[in-house]
Inverse folding.
């Protein structure tokens, strides 16, 4: 490890799944020395491959002490965190001191929980950074990401999808839509991306959608004003599998604003299926 | 039959299903004397309970001759029409004379097909009217339609749903959304209302949506600029059954712009389930 990032002290608070580890590896590859905070019952045991500490949810005082002891000033919250049950939290003195702030964060929806927790860190003088800032190589770039280039004929559908997501932004709904030749086939709300793509596959199988051959583009974009540090849209191998089932032409993501998880296997799966993945500017 | 409508000559071109007959009965109840045009292979045999003629799709010359013979100047297109296969059409001389206009209508999507056909009627001097104009008693009025009144707490969700549909209007998507306490749970696109409500039921059953008890409102509204004469949103008994499965609090429809099919049994089913149905102004 070398370069100016080599000594930059950075903590990654790890949610569930393999993605926090992927971000940690990518950060290390760019010269950073990430310190991982594993959450008991949530994080992958793989955090132990890095300098790390295990904490229970609620051990807020201990967390800040661990970070201070290492001179860490930057913190990233990475990976899925299912909303914990209040009864499972182990509040230490550091948590009790900050109880009013934490209680406020818990009262809203998931976005508010995340931004409330980020505010607690910021109140302690930490800088909260996003996965895309510490691991920029995981972020979609502009243009073809895999072997296949998006055909010019898909451009209109991509822009229609982006405009639809933008129109839905004030309602905090829809990071994803499927568009085929100007027609909106599906719009994502609480069901999530995989279920939305499965719906398109089902509509094709049942001939509710009478299309033959690959058709349609899955467009993924953050909502306007979405805090990318806390909740960045992502695609991964499961997205590709679902897009293949739906017989799409390809996937379009906003360049610089969408993460590609397990990038190599994701792009390889898309290439094998003849699916394009493209980064675009809305 | 009496009143000024008694002699108003009116033709109803009947698509599939029972709804054209319901409109015909409702029109007759207001004093009109509807003449029904049954389409071979599409319309319900019940058209024979009214003065009627059976025609094959494509017998355009014969259609206009039948209407002229009866001094009919107003025409309504009512009920579902699956896009016919070109090979199934039996063009007569009257159709061939209008071939360029008909070909133009056939080239676009379903909305364009409808408005193209309406334009052909208008070009012949007919007035095209909507089901809501000849059977206004089938249209949702303002306020509670059934026994249960929408609680004041639902008002915000109803307006959020209406605003979401309005925002989607430029993209020709979404006549329906489900909103629960400010959160958009589902947005309708090509799958249709029943599938969207089934999705909410599934999300609740699988605990993807962690709600207990009745929650959420299904909001149905026409798209901005939608031609209500040709394609008016409608709810009916199946909508109620699906809303019950989804454990909704109620259904909100735009007053004056949404039809209630099989009104009596629809409202009775909603009442029995404790579901509100309300007409609102967006």
């Amino acid at each position: 490890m070398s370069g100016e990032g080599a000594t930059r002290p950075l903590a990654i608070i790890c949610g569930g799944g393999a993605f926090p580890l992927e971000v940690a590896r990518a950060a290390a590859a760019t010269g950073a020395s990430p310190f991982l905070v594993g959450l008991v019952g949530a994080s992958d045991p793989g955090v132990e491959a890095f300098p790390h500490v295990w904490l229970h949810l609620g051990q807020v005082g201990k967390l800040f002490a661990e970070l201070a002891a290492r001179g860490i000033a930057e913190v990233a919250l990475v990976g899925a965190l299912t909303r914990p049950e209040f009864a499972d939290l182990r509040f230490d003195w550091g948590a009790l001191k900050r109880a009013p702030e934490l209680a406020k964060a818990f009262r809203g929806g998931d976005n508010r929980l995340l931004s409330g927790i980020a505010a607690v860190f910021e109140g302690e003088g930490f800088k909260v950074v996003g996965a895309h800032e510490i691991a920029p190589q995981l972020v979609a770039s502009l243009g073809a990401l895999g072997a296949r280039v998006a055909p010019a004929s898909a451009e209109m559908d991509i822009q229609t999808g982006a405009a639809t997501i933008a129109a839905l932004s004030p309602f905090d709904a829809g990071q994803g839509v499927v568009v085929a030749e100007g027609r909106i086939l599906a719009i994502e709300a609480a069901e999530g991306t995989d279920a939305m793509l499965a719906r398109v596959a089902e509509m094709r199988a049942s001939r509710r959608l009478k299309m033959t051959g690959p058709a349609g583009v899955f467009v993924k974009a953050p909502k306007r004003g979405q805090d990318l540090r806390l909740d960045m849209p992502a695609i991964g191998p499961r997205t590709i599998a679902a897009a293949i089932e739906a017989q799409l032409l390809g996937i379009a993501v906003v360049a610089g604003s969408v993460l590609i998880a397990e990038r190599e296997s994701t792009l390889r799966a898309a290439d094998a299926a003849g699916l394009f993945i493209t980064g675009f500017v809305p």
